[in-house]
Design brief:
Number of strands: 0
Pfam families: Na_H_antiporter
Organism: Alteribacillus bidgolensis
Membrane topology: Multi-pass membrane protein
Subcellular location: Cell membrane
Strand content: under 5%
Order of helices and strands: HHHHHHHHHHHHHHHHHHHHHHHH
Main location: membrane
Number of helices: 24
Length: 461
């Protein structure tokens, strides 16, 4: 595998440094991408950057992602404007008596909606904003709880989009026979340490066993003492447009009593049809939008023109997260052309003894996933190397595979421009870098515990 040596690290490092200095995610990604193409093409960098941008926009996966995010924006706007989200919030609020119970419900919802990290992050964050605000919970803590039950839970459930992708790789690489990838994945699940640890670390944080750490402590103090749940600079960041929310408040007296069925039925349709369509979130959200519009029209809650206007209005707050996601794929393209994955693998391969393979795979590939924002890409590149290597040096296969899957989940959880990170932050109504910085101590704690587990079991199994 060809690479540019240590130079391949420069774009990813540039993004991280620029983002930490400016707290601006989109601009940091653009800067890092341009630096990558300067390294690749020198004075011809700009045409290459433009070509990469066009290629990314023309990629079916990116098109799928853009449609998913836009339709989710419209779907959420309909739930809010119809009063369905309000009714759900009022119902849950009536059952919740404390901040701790509000966060526990958020955590449980994250575990239940395991089918896809996008559906998980968007549904849970937007549903629980109003409730956690009532109990003076910082949006930073809400975003951390949401993000910790997105990718970490998806890698633990063999029926999620993440698991189905990985078990397909298992079959392609000969770990399992055709049609038996699911059974192989079940054997790996106990060894996906990062998923388990991240879920329990956030639970212990909610229960107060793990104290609020660093920037999260500051955010919680602000929310509890001043009642300011949304951090400064995040006022215009939300998947629920201010105009839509204002429209709900203005129309509440005229509206019939909000019905919870206008929340639950669309969400159930979303999850059920996503599963029916072979775990396709786009088909699921399109059908859910159609069902929601039909329900609200026949209940005469809104006119058909108002329903479609509300749906289109829901696109507006999604433009920024879409920009981040598209820019992150341009950076991924630059990193791939520079051979970042190949360079890191080449450097860590000499360290891979049978005992050290799991921990080295987790740490190195976790860092690659964090730096590149390519989580499924790390699986596609790494598994064909790790599987024969584990067989050749007689390392525990299931432990080694669990380490690689954990690395992708760690990267998704920690990366400032990872899709689930961006959507968890935006869904919770805060800036992405604020979310990344406040949850980082907990991610590092979870990562350290996971690495220790792989180190110990690497020598004992």
């Amino acid at each position: 595998m060809e690479h540019y040596g240590w130079i391949s690290l420069v774009p990813a490092l540039s993004v991280l440094i620029f983002a930490l200095l400016t707290r601006r995610t989109l601009e940091s990604l653009i800067v890092g991408s341009i630096i990558g193409f300067i390294l690749l093409e020198k004075e011809n960098f700009f045409p290459s950057f433009v070509d990469s941008s066009l290629a990314v926009m023309g990629d079916p996966t990116i098109g799928w992602l853009i449609f998913v995010v836009l339709f989710f924006g419209g779907f959420i706007a309909l739930l809010v404007k119809s009063g369905g989200a309000l009714a759900f919030g009022d119902f849950v609020s009536s059952k919740i008596k404390s901040k701790k119970s509000a966060l526990l419900i958020t955590w449980l919802m994250g575990l239940i909606i395991f089918i896809d990290d996008y559906i998980n992050a968007l549904t849970v964050s937007t549903s629980m904003q109003r409730i956690t605000d009532k109990y003076k919970t910082s949006r930073e803590l809400l975003a951390y709880v949401v993000d910790s039950t997105a990718a970490p839970i998806c890698v633990l459930v063999p029926l999620s989009t993440w698991a189905i992708y990985v078990l397909g790789l298992f079959e392609a690489e000969g770990v399992a026979d055709a049609g038996q990838g699911g059974m192989a994945y079940l054997q790996v699940v106990p060894f996906i340490f990062y998923g388990w640890v991240a879920i329990f670390v956030v639970l212990l944080t909610i229960l107060g066993v793990i104290p609020k750490l660093g920037p999260m402590k500051t955010a919680e103090l602000r929310a509890e003492t001043q009642g300011i749940c949304i951090p400064e600079g995040s006022g215009n960041i939300s998947l629920v447009d201010d105009e839509i929310a204002a429209g709900v408040d203005a129309d509440e007296k005229k509206m019939k009593e909000p019905k919870m069925i206008n929340f639950f039925i669309p969400v159930i349709v979303l999850i059920a049809y996503t599963w029916y369509a072979g775990i396709d979130a786009l088909q699921g959200v399109i059908v859910a939008v159609a069902v929601t519009i039909a329900m609200l029209f026949f209940q005469r809650i809104m006119k058909l023109t108002e329903l479609f206007d509300t749906f289109i209005d829901g696109f507006k707050p999604m433009i920024y997260p879409i920009g981040i996601l598209v820019a992150s794929f341009i950076l991924v393209d630059a990193n791939e052309k520079l051979g970042l994955n190949a360079y890191v693998i080449e450097k860590v391969e000499p360290l891979m003894s049978s005992s050290l393979l799991p921990v080295v795979a987790f740490v190195s590939m976790g860092l690659v996933a964090f730096a590149t924002g390519s989580f499924w890409g790390v699986y596609a590149v790494t598994l064909p190397i790790i599987i024969p290597l584990a067989e050749a040096i007689d390392a525990n296969m299931w432990l080694s595979l669990g380490a690689v899957i954990s690395a992708g989940a760690f990267g998704s959880h920690a990366c400032p421009y990872g899709d689930a990170t961006v959507l968890s932050a935006t869904g919770s109504g805060i800036d992405t870098m604020t979310h990344v910085i406040t949850q980082l101590p907990y991610i590092l704690l979870s990562g350290a515990i996971s690495a220790l587990g792989y180190l110990i079991l690497g020598f004992t199994l």
